[in-house]
Amino acid sequence: MAATVDRREAPLPGAPDPWALSSQPVLRPAPPFLMTEMIAAEPSLAARIVRRLSVGPGLADAAAACRQAADGGEPIIITGCGTSHHAAMALAALMTEALERAGYPDPRVAAVQAFEASRRPPRGGVLMAVSHEGGTAATNDALRAATAAGATTVLVTVSDRSPGAALATHVLATEEQDQSWCHTVGYLSPLVAGACLHGFVVGAVPTADALAAQVAAGADVSAAERLVEALAGTDRLMVVGSGADYASARELALKVEEGVRLPTTAHELETIRHGHLAAATERTGLVAFLTDAEGRGAALAERTASVLRAAAELGMPAVVIGAADRAGDSGPATGSQLVTLDPTLPRPVAAVLGAAIPLQLLTERLARARGANPDAIGREDPRQAAAAAV
Q1: Which of 207, 231, 249 is the last residue of a domain?
Q2: Which positions ≥6 away from 133 have C-beta within 8 Å?
Q3: Structure confidence at residue 3 as a pLDDT band (50, 70, 90)
Q4: Which is more confidently placed, 189 or 327?
């Protein structure tokens, strides 16, 4: 068995020099997996990213570009693929709230998948791309198209030496690379960068310690294992969330499908009630996110509770990942993991950071329970490897 490394405090390796795309990691026959180590590394990683980004020009330049776009009523499009797209969705929620706080009542902020963004780039304004390694073809195409259309471009990535970085006007380099292909660091890193950018836009950057503590607040392994017990026996999952919680739902669905090989679908909270439950059975598990990142209170809680009541009627095991101050609001659930959100942080910042480790731990513990190695993302199967290479 390959040696494990205590990565809780030590910095992770950066991108290769000269830059190159990562190769499949060495697969361990049993846990702890590389994914396990990456999750454990995230609180300290978050603090390092804050300290690193706060001393360079990138955040100030990116914030100024976003403010200039908002001043002119121009669009701010945030894009990526896969996990990076889900991080882009969360960043769109953060940037919308930041610009509203800064006095722009109706900022034009949207998350768009990279292939679509390359087809219809913003003409003026800002295109902000998320790409963990900076080598994703569709994302780099979107950067090229946006530049040609007259937009300012920003890239959130590991290395300023990547192909994507060479295409961007401004680069926010997080500098530490995910060692597992079932990306966790690759999701959290742009969220932390987005939290810092939020702070620059509103003029109040959160401290490194505050953001690290919020990330760590979700690192409850026992709670994750209780959720896995509640979902035992399911043959597929449905995941729901609203607003910023929908980004978390999308990321959990991807993590479970690639890391656990369990069919999973993410739905927006209201959408699931409009036909999708017709295919659900008592072997379909439900995961609901309820951090209330947008502060909608009773209305959001009641819609979530209605979905959980519907799941109970169908005999579906249902669990909640949410904010501790929403305890008791969500209605009937088989289990829950409730994370305390720091009231000194903007609610969307605390919510997206607080949900990151719970969704990752749920994936990692589900993989253990089902005998899967999440680091492989299925590519130990030659057919999956061939499909990925097409």
Answers
A1: 207
A2: 15, 21, 22, 157, 158, 159, 162, 177
A3: low
A4: 189
Q: Are 119 and 144 in the same domain?
A: yes
pLDDT given at position 56: 84
Does residue 389 form part of some domain? no
Instruction: Report residue 105: phi and psi, to 5°.
Output: -70, -25
pLDDT of residue 389: 87
Q: Are residues 56 and 144 in the same domain?
A: yes
* Start-end of H helices in 127-167: 137-148, 163-167
At residue 326, does pLDDT exceed 90?
A: no
**Cis peptide, bond prior to residue 18, ω within 30 of zero:** yes
CA distance 153 to 147: 7
Residue 190 and residue 152 share a domain: yes
pTM: 0.96
Q: Which amino acid is at 304?
A: T
In a domain, residue 29? The reply is no
Q: What is the pLDDT of residue 330?
A: 63
| 60 and 179 housed in the same domain | yes
Banded pLDDT at 287 (limits 50, 70, 90): very high
Residue 42 has pLDDT above 80, yes or no: yes
Adjacency order of strands within the sheet including 152-157:
109-113, 76-80, 126-130, 152-157, 170-173
DSSP 15: -
DSSP secondary-structure letter at 77? E
Mean pLDDT of the chain: 95
Sequence-distant (6+) residues with CB within 8 A of 164 are 129, 131, 134, 135, 136, 139, 140, 143, 155, 157
Work out the burial of residue 182: count CB atoms within 10 Å of its CB; fewer than 13 is exposed, 13-18 middle, 19 or more buried: buried
Q: Are residues 116 and 232 in the same domain?
A: no
Q: So what's the pLDDT on residue 381?
A: 85
105 and 251 share one domain: no
The whole domain housing 226 covers 217-375
Task: Write the CA distances from 61 to 43, 64, 151, 190, 378, integer angstroms.
Answer: 26, 5, 14, 16, 40
Residue where one domain finishes, among candidates 187, 207, 227: 207
pLDDT beyond 80 at 251: yes
How many domains is the chain partitioned into structurally? 2
3-class secondary structure, 3: coil
The structure tokens listed for 72 are: 């002119």
Give me the residues paired with residue 304 across strands. Answer: none
